[in-house]
Amino acid sequence: MTAVTDEDHTGRAEHPEESAKGLTGGDRTAKQGPGERESRVRDKGGHARVVDVGTSRRTDSASAWDDGLIARRATEENTGSEHVPAVETRALSVQPTVPLTYDRPLRARLDALRELVGLSRTRLDGQTLAEAGRVLDESAARRRLSGQHTVVAIAGATGSGKSQLFNALAGVPISETGVRRPTTATPIACSWSDGAASLIERLGIPPRLRRRPLQNPETEAQLRGLVLVDLPDHDSAAVQHREQVDRVLALVDAVIWVVDPEKYADAVLHERYLRPMAGHAEVMFVVLNQTDRLPGEATHQVLDDLRRLLDEDGIALGEYGDPGATVLALSALTGDGVGELREALGQFVAERGAPARRISADLDAAAEELRPLYAARRRTGLSEEARDEFSARLADAVGASAAGEAAERAWLRNANRACGTPWLRLWRWYRDRSEATTGRVPLPAQTDEEATARQRVEQAVRTLADRASTGLPAPWAQAVREAAVRGSHGLPEALDELAVRAGLPPGRPPRPGWWPLAVMAQVSMTLLQVVGGLWLLGQIIGFMAPNLGVPVLLMAAGIIGGPIVEWSCRMAARGPARRYGTDAERRLREAAAGCGRARVLDPVAAELLRYREVREQYGRVTGVGTGPR
To answer: Which residue in 116, 162, 195, 333 has its CB near the most CB atoms, within 10 A?
Structure first.
């Protein structure tokens, strides 16, 4: 059977070895004789005739195939003793590309990741979110492309025989093989069906490196929808080769890792590729090649050891019907086991689930990378106890308790002045006149008090920030602390202004209804003293008849009754004074709590709420519950 290429759609046949060298229309010399555009076929009468097949095929093929060198099948028919090669042509039509569709859970996870990245941009740097952004971009780009094709890359180390396996699957020597290293310098793509051009362009493979397999109805039906990519050596000495491998591996739907009996345990392969891609086991094939070099039962021993290494890498093995990587042993040189791989690939491609599984695995990897940034070690947030303690600290810093006590003393002092005896009030007036008129605290003491209050406010803010950020991932803990620090700027001054506005109202405290009666009683006691004293004075000077009993009784009643009335008023004033002081303290505490809530608690709560939102989105990305918050 002869392979026929159709690079320039003229229908001329080329030798397979020429196709193996990756020649293009620009590489070949345009030497074309008159007979090169003709083919010899037999008519019904058995006579050979020459027909021009190039012109008829140019129009039909050019629109459908622009993939570079295309390997075709040529059949040979023998009639009698004459050997006549015949070119098989087929009608190729451009079929509309069916975009890839994701199921609802995968779409929900992608939407959650997009929301997560959007909410996190102001808290995390772009480099941290780069992988998540790449997954979103690649998922969107892959979704717009064909869902009827599966792109599978063949990767391996130097000398593993991946190009030989690539040619064995294609049935024609497409990728160059040999002892020269590195042999494969650039990726080469081979597509088994139409409509894969956009997928191959996404990989950055030019048209001159795009191939078609040997035409075989059985293999074409089995591998329809497959796009196979032969990659350079991942351990190549050329840096650009390794960069191409890493770039294409991030874009393909699945990968076939080809290892050989000598380098299957290579640390570079396991540590740089297999272990990081352990979550992609469902879209991974691991092929032990060159089994023809192993004697006897050595193949099973090496294969078992390879499975052990894969298990240590965390790669699930698809055994006994479980999802995971497919591990096979074959020889691309002899063809032993290639059919089994072709059958597994055919079933894998026919399912058409590899692109979605690859995106899902990329999502899992991105979520695992972001886990330290979103997963809290414990339940987070501010408890009511922490909020109340912060408000209490601010109230202490602003002197709410002292203000309440001062209000209570002021109320009692006002009551004593209103209900006290005139003589005691006169004594207090004289004492107040003799003392300093200012009654102010010296300036150094006031300065020390302000410094102490500022320190209390700062300590309260630090304590609140520490409690709010405990258990949070580092970026969100830092954001909470920064919000608390921003709110603390100017907080002591704001509290001082509130203390002035919410403090005691100017003037005297309000008086209860019984105060006039107490004042009248005290005035009566004073009048009794005055009347009794004048009466006694009149008797002493002889103005009035001597009668000591009544004036003495009046004076005694006034002298004793005055303190009794004052003491009774003081006892009765304790309750209203305490309520008055409590109300003053409550107003100041509420004002301090409101100021602290507006400046510190609300910004901190907003940061915690943002973290709670991103934590919920992260839970949706991982497909599990949000856990403790």
So the answer is: 162
Burial class (CB in 10 A: 0-12, 13-18, 19+), 580: buried
Residue 612 main-chain phi, psi, to 5 deg: -65, -40
Quick one: average pLDDT of 561-568? 75
The total of other beta-carbon atoms located within 10 Å of residue 68's CB is 22
pLDDT at 327: 95
Q: Round to whole Å and give the CA distance between 584 and 568.
A: 25
Sheet holding 82-87, edge to edge: 2-5, 71-79, 82-87
Evaluate whether 47 touches 37 at the Cβ level (below 8 Å).
no
Spatial neighbors of 231 by CB under 8 A, at least 6 apart, are 153, 154, 155, 156, 162, 184, 187, 244, 245, 248, 249
DSSP 549: H
Mean pLDDT to the nearest integer, 227-254 = 93
Give CA–CA dist 398/365, Å, rounded: 52
Q: State how far the Cα of 483 lies from the Cα of 339, in Å rounded to an integer.
A: 64
Query: What is the DSSP-derived secondary structure letter of residue 317?
Result: B
Q: What are the beta bridge partners of residue 288?
A: 259, 329
Region of 321 (left: φ > 0; alpha: ψ -120 to 50; beta: rest) is left
Model's pTM, two decimal places?
Answer: 0.68
User: What confidence score (pLDDT) does residue 182 get?
Assistant: 54
